[in-house]
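agent> Task received from the user: take the single chain below, predict its 3D structure, and emit structure tokens. No templates, no multimer pairing.
agent> Plan: (1) validate residues, (2) run structure prediction, (3) serialize to tokens, (4) report one or two observations.
agent> Step 1 OK, no nonstandard residues flagged.
tool_call: predict_structure(input=
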Amino acid sequence: MMKKIGKRGAAYGVIALLLCAAVYLNWSYVDAPEELLAAGQTDPVDPTDGAAAAQDGAQDYFATSRLTREQARDEAVSTLKELSESEQADQAAKEEAAAQISALADDQVAEANIESLIRAKGYADAVVMIGDGSVNVVVAPPDGGLQATDVTVIKDIVVSETGAAAGQIKIVEAA
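)
tool_result: status=success, residues=175
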């Protein structure tokens, strides 16, 4: 009995490690294809206009971040689906994989809701990444940069949508 529990725990640990590595590698190294980024732009940008170029760069950052986040999540879900459909995995491992897939889907919905609510409060854009025990928010700062009131508004949104403690939330200005 003890060997079975030890093997199961080791299998869960390896799965978690592989998922974390896949998410990290995708987040760090995957670049968005230019045609996908260009497809979202409808207005031509004058390259001599510094403000427009800076705004375009910020839009590219948010589009790239969302695309990278989705690619990492898709890869993690694919790995979990393979595990849940594996003949070699025991029932507990399959149930754990299904639970992790469900948790990833819940995180995806929460991230989209938080991003929408932040934009509804008047911020140009934001990208949210929910991880194990943390929520990271990168926001396009208003003129004059993020102030304490801005951070409070954003934290309130994140807390209401996720139930995360204020200490688990990191808010960063997009450069």
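agent> Step 4: summary for the user.
Strands lie at 126-131, 134-139, 169-173.
agent> Done.
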